[in-house]
Amino acid sequence: MKRRQFIQLAASVCGLLATSKFFTARQIMAAEMIEKINQPETEWKKSLAPEQYAVLRQEGTEAPFSSPLNAEKHSGTFVCAACGLPLFPSKFKYDSGTGWPSFYDVLPNHVVTKTDYKLVLPRTEYHCARCGGHQGHVFKDGPAPTGLRYCNNGVALKFVPDRS
Q1: How far apart are the C-alpha atoms of 152 and 84, rounded to whole Å?
Q2: Could you list the residue range(s) of the whole structural domain that residue 9 is in?
Q3: What does DSSP assign to residue 120?
Q4: Residue 82, domain CATH
Q5: Nearest to 134 by CA among 123, 145, 126
Q6: Does residue 86 have a cis bond before it (omega within 30 degrees)?
Q7: What is the pTM for the complete model shown?
Q8: Does residue 19 share a domain with residue 43?
Q9: How many domains does the chain have?
Q10: Both 10 and 41 in a single domain?
């Protein structure tokens, strides 16, 4: 099977599965475009601060209003704290009032999503497409143009200012 045929088949399967919320076309595209980092948990534990490890590797949540990134207003890019993959340009950031850095969109194919039932009702959780680090949850109560709110844990991000 040729690569193009495989991608077309994968997209078709994804279309069928998307209705059952297992995968989205975006997830399959991210898997195709972003090279994964597979590292043992012992290495992640060494390279991340304890609060970062709890969020990024164990899907924890930091306390609201605890991140200095809530107040970050400079031009730049928010990247995954574990692997440095760019996730959000600063122009996508807005103040949602929730206490976590919030964004109305994400760089295409740079996150993957899954449904999480930890609070009984389903929520959409998103992870870095490169390292699998947990970032936060996406909700459908954000501003235009997307109507989405990517609610991110600040410890899961690093801010890289634009060079002037």
Answers
A1: 15
A2: 1-33
A3: S
A4: 2.170.150.20
A5: 126
A6: no
A7: 0.78
A8: no
A9: 2
A10: no
